[in-house]
Amino acid sequence: MSDTWELYYWPGMPGRGEFMRLLFIETSTPFKDVYAGEDWTAVGKVNYQLSKEFFALPTIKHNGFMLSQTPVICRYLAVKLNNGVLYPKEELLGYQAEMIMAGIVDLTAEGHDAWHPIDKNATYVSQKEQAKPFIEYYEKKRLPKWFSFFEKVLAENEKKYPSFDEGGPFLVGESISYVDLCMFHILDGIEFQCPEAYAFIDVPKLKNLKTRIQNRPKIKQYLESAQRSRFTGTGPIF
C-alpha cells in the first residue's frame, strides 16, 4: 500500500479531476496525477473495463483505499487533508457545504450534457451542430438561475458572518472550505467557455469569490504553472 495520494483522471484537461487537485494544492498535500501525460486511448481502455476497481474517473487511492464519485471524493479529502482544515467544523455547516457541492456537481453535469447532447461518451466535435440549441439554453436559462442561487448563498452567509479578513464572504461559515475551491473551478471553466454569458450575469459576490480564490498564493502559483492543464473548449471545466 502506498501512502502517496493518487488521482486517476483523464489526461490533458482540468475536468472533474481539477476539483481534487485544487484541494491537494491548497493544503500543500503531495499527490500523484497517475494518468498525467498518458495516451487518452490507453486510459479509456482502462476506464471502460467492467472489471476495474472503480466506477468512473475521477478516482482517488490512498493506503489501498479507493474512492470514486466527485462529491464524495471532495468531502472525503476535505475531512482528511491537513487535519480537515477545508471541512466546516459545525455539523450543520457541513451539511450546507455538501448541499452546495451537490449543486456544483449538477451544474457541471448540465454543462457536460449541453455540449454532448446526443452521445455523452462521444466527442463534442462529433455533435457540435446538434449541441448549439442546448448550449444556448444552458447559457441563457440555466447559468442565470444557478448563479443567482449561489449569489444568494453568499449574501446570506455574509449576514451571519459580517467580519471577513479576505475581502468578502465564503459560501459556508467564516473561513474557506472545499466548496469555495470547487466553486472557483466551475466558475473559471464557465468564464473560459461562455465568456459573454458569464460577463452578462450580475453576481458581484460570486465573481469576487472567484477572484479571491484564484489569487490565493498556492492556487495562483499552481494556475500559472505547467502542472495545470488548460481548458480544451469542449464544455465548461473540460
UniProtKB/TrEMBL annotation:
Q: Hey, what's the signal peptide range on this chain?
A: none
Specify the superkingdom.
Eukaryota
Q: Recall the GO molecular function terms of this protein's record.
A: glutathione transferase activity
Q: Which Pfam families match?
A: GST_C_3
Domain named GST C-terminal is located at: 90-231
Q: Biological process (GO) annotations?
A: glutathione metabolic process
InterPro entries linked: Glutathione-S-Trfase_C-like, Glutathione-S-Trfase_C_sf, Glutathione_S-Trfase, GST_C, GST_superfamily, Thioredoxin-like_sf
Q: What are the UniProt keywords, alphabetically? A: Transferase
Which named protein is this? Sigma-class glutathione S-transferase
* Native organism: Basidiobolus meristosporus CBS 931.73
